[in-house]
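TICKET: design request
STATUS: open
ATTACHED STRUCTURE:
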């Protein structure tokens, strides 16, 4: 009886884990990111590969996305590096930074490279001014004043004031939840669902 009950519980837990949706998992990972005290610091650092990361107490906007996906078992450092090795010219590293080869320490932490990867391996979605076009788990990129690229992700919460979906991002104060979808010029709208959820 005890063994049967344990087996039944084990089956229920594994079934629940198997049926968890991408939206549920990514929202959980994104909200968890907002519990960390992170100082905004985009300094170039040498990091390990694969699954390399800068120290836990620093990060930039891309690190929010990278760390959220890592919580799901997806290593964007490795995926972007491998894709850049296959087709370096598909990425803007030469045009923007004058690079002639990949750099596992920083490539995945640059918004334009992330955009190129998402365009190649995710879904490119409509950029619009209509909040209903944006769904939980979508990735949005913006251009901030001073031509600074930025990235964040939508969660499953809506602003009661504006009706806009809320974003988890790091715009300088560490990972936070904010109503800012339409605060800056939107340069990209993507969706990247890992294969295990299909």
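STATUS: resolved
RESOLUTION: sequence designed for all positions
ATTACHED SEQUENCE:
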């Amino acid at each position: 009886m005890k063994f049967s009950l344990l087996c039944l519980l084990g089956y229920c837990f594994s079934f629940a884990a198997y049926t968890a949706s991408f939206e549920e998992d990514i929202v959980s990972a994104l909200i968890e990111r907002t519990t960390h005290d992170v100082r905004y610091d985009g300094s170039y650092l040498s990091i390990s590969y694969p699954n390399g990361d800068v120290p836990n107490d620093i990060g930039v906007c891309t690190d929010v996305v990278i760390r959220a996906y890592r919580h799901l078992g997806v290593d964007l450092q490795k995926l972007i590096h491998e894709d850049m090795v296959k087709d370096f010219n598909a990425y803007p590293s030469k045009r923007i930074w004058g690079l002639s080869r990949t750099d596992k320490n920083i490539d995945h932490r640059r918004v334009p490279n992330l955009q190129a990867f998402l365009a190649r391996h995710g879904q490119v979605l409509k950029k619009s001014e209509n909040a209903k076009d944006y769904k939980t788990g979508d990735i949005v990129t913006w251009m901030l004043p001073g031509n600074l690229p930025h990235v964040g992700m939508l969660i499953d919460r809506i602003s009661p004031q504006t009706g806009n979906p809320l974003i988890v991002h790091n715009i300088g104060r560490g990972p936070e939840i904010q109503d800012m979808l339409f605060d800056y010029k939107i340069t990209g709208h993507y969706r990247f669902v890992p294969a295990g959820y299909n």
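CLOSING REMARK: The CA atoms of residues 33 and 142 lie 20 Å apart. Residues 20-197 form a domain with the endopeptidase fold (from Nostoc punctiforme) fold (CATH 3.90.1720.10).
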